Amino acid sequence: MAPQAVLPSVLALLCLCTGVYSASVPTTAGGAFSRMLVRPQLIDEDLTESMEMECSLDDSLHIVSHIVSIVILRQDGQNKNILVASVTSFDPAKPAVDYGSLAVFGSVDLPRNHLKLVWDHPGATQASNYTCEINAIDAFARPMTLLTSYAVTSRVPTTEVMIRHIRQLENRVDTLEQILAAQNNRLQELEKAAGLLDPNTTGKEEEKYVDDDDDDNDDDDDDDDSKEEEKK
Whose CA, among 55, 128, 181, 216, lies 20 to 30 Å from 92? Predict the structure, then answer.
């Protein structure tokens, strides 16, 4: 093969090997990929207490040099991606929707980068297709985008689900009552150890106070007698 033919082939191979760094659709890039965790995956309307979603970069080969931003999007009713929350190298983590029920935490610092979302009592509105988008700079100073998608669904809870939820709440109440009883017992033990609930100690203290009062009264009587003698 002629040298002129070898050079284009080598260049083409290099392009194929490095082109994934700037691709926007693949979730991996030369060993780096975006990771998305969602708990729970299914929302029971009016029953699910909270939902957590976290997006982060997994870069075991140190492909990424800097993270510019971490963004979470979701599809609306018209299947358009809308911004849910973001954190950038210029702005702190903040929500863009669901202000009354969404708390956002995050950082783009390596290696502890993450964007975490916590909803309080999520509903049907939060059931959607979510996308985690990480915009970064690779080791060769080139931009790269990593994407990961996740579908969250919702349902109207059935009678069986509601009964199971009630039982879970009852078990939780029982556990809390046991913890409270144990703490009360522990508190009483500590008070007894300090002598605060010792009846003998309490009685002696009361007698001491009574004796002190009697002594004060005796002193007052002696003073009165002395004054009368002086008058005479």
Answer: 128
Residue type, 74: R
Whether pLDDT at 158 is above 90: no
The three-state (H, E, C) secondary structure of 18-51, written as one string: HHHHHCCCCCEECCEEEEEEEECCEEECCCCCEE
* CB under 8 A, 24+ apart: contacts of 205-208: none
Q: Assign 3-state DSSP to the chain and report helix, strand, coil percentages, each to 5.
A: 40, 35, 25
List Cα–Cα distances, 169 to 119, 160, 163, 199, in angstroms: 20, 14, 10, 41
Backbone φ and ψ of 210, nearest 5°: -65, -45
CA distance 203 to 181: 29
SS3 101: coil
Closest-CA residue to 84 (of 111, 116, 58, 112) = 116
Lookup: tokens for 171: 């078990």
Angle at 147 between CA 15 and CA 105, to 5 degrees: 135
- Kindly tell me the sign of the dihedral angle through the C-alpha atoms of 171, 118, 134, 78: positive
Closest CA to 134 of 84, 51, 66: 66
**By the 8 A CB rule, do 65 and 139 touch?**
yes
Question: Tokens 């579908």 appear where?
Answer: 151
User: CA 14 to CA 25: how far, in whole Å?
Assistant: 20
pTM of the model: 0.63
